[in-house]
Amino acid sequence: MEITALETVQFESESDLTTTERDIDLTILRVHTDASVVGLGETFPQAEMEAGAIHGPIADQVLGRDPRDIEAIRDDLQTYFNYYGHAGAESRAMSALDIALWDIKGKAAGEPIYQLLGGKSRTEIPAYNTCYDQEFDFCEEPVALAESLLEQGITSMKIWPFDEFATETRGQRITAEQLEAGVAPIQQIRDAVGNKMDIAIELHGLWALTPGKRIVDAVSQYNPVWVEDVVRKGNFEAYERLAASTDCSLCISERLIGRYEFEQALQTNAVDIVMPDLCWTGGISEGRAIAAMAETHHLPIAPHNSGGPVLHAANAHLSATVPNLYVMETIRDRYDGWHQNLVTETMPVRKGSLAIPDRPGLGTKLDSSLLNHPETTVRRTSA
After folding, report:
1. 293-340 residue pLDDT tens
2. Of 43, 117, 188, 205, most Cβ neighbours within 10 A?
3. Is 235 exposed, middle or buried (0-12, 13-18, 19+ CB in 10 A)?
4. Which domains are present in the chain?
5. What is the DSSP string of 102-158?
6. Which residue(s) pair with 9 in the sheet?
């Protein structure tokens, strides 16, 4: 079997196909083979940059190769790109390719991807909801949002009520009044539903260490399931200092690229929950390696999942197989919303969990009508 073409599908910025709370500039990758098996990948959020890497250096390196040689292709591309930096658009493009190659391998074998990764470790996948919600604003209607999730059997949610304050001072300072406003939706949820709802707090790496400590201290009384990405990545010593100042669990980080950056983070002893993003960090192959490294530190993973339907499916397969899964991120406005415009199977959360996928490969396919849709741009590079 040989790779014969790489094909990207991109979407107009105002397209209703990917209607969401923000423009994620999604790129879908289709890897074609001479056996008529097509693999599906995905990345975001800079479509032109990632497509440039796919149709340029990646196509040069992989066209004509056997798509089932995933490890060799991964290592060769990482060696090639490491010459001038290992992260950025190249890493995101490699991530899409890796996911597509696993999809091909699963389809060729007639097995779901998780079976090729060692089989399933659970009968269903626990999920939480990241609250990009177009019906409820978590700052204005936190209780209604929490109650609506509980009605669907979802007992864990993530919100980011401090982000608006970071822009005022570039994350260098936060006032007592702002702290009070930030914790208000958390307190309202706790007062209304008690501990029925786990709450994770996302800070998006927007804060310097000093105000970050104040925020973590302020939310600690509400027993958050974790506090995520308090400071910008790059200085792991800062996270050590943060960890020493709190008993809150710290979650790090979709912004880390590849097993080597995650290993550096794990060596600090400042990480409680490990969060790789398969569309950024290197695909399923890197995600599996990172999960194994986390397991040696007796730490769980919670895969980041804030993209499109292919990332969602890839995360489901990784989450099905790794023994050290904490929970999988999901967004109900997407799997019950615009994901349905793009793929045949969206793998929704029902009663707080995802079913284990049972179809070959990823278990979902691109809606073929998108290849000739007026709001998509299709580009193909062939051998």
Report:
1. 999 999 999 999 999 999 999 999 999 999 999 999 999 999 999 999
2. 43
3. exposed
4. 3-110+366-382 (3.30.390.10), 115-355 (3.20.20.120)
5. HHHHHHHHTSBHHHHTT--S-SEEEEEEE---SS--TTTSHHHHHHHHHHTT--EEE
6. 28, 378
